[in-house]
Amino acid sequence: MKVIDPASIKRARDARKIVEDLQVRLMQCEMHLEDLARCAEIAQITNQFHLLSSFTAAANEYLQDKLEMPEQETGEMKIRIITDDETVSN
Q: Which of 12, 18, 77, 83 is 20 to 30 A from 60, comparing alpha carbons?
């Protein structure tokens, strides 16, 4: 699924449709996350980690249509590392 530019939405009807679609996608995502969390909890308690495979496969299948963010050019970055003794800048 492509990212939607909010500035491109001109009509309220289009915005409502997008909101409805995104709510459905969010509920599906929450369902898969909840399934994985419960399965992981059961697998941890019972030491039956093979249970995770089918839930992981279902989640990965859902992620096939995940939002794709456009690549952004990264510029020069400055990093400062603070330690107990001194500050090192890069």
A: 18
H helix or E strand, kind and range, residue 56: helix 52-62
Amino acid in the structure at residue 8: S
Q: How far is CA 1 from CA 15, 29, 77, 80, 81, in A?
A: 16, 14, 30, 37, 38
Rounded Cα–Cα distance for residues 58 and 60 (Å): 5
What digits encode the pLDDT tens for the residues 8-22?
A: 888 999 899 989 999
Q: Which helix (H) or strand (E) holds 34?
A: helix 12-46
Alpha carbon of residue 52 to chain centroid: 19
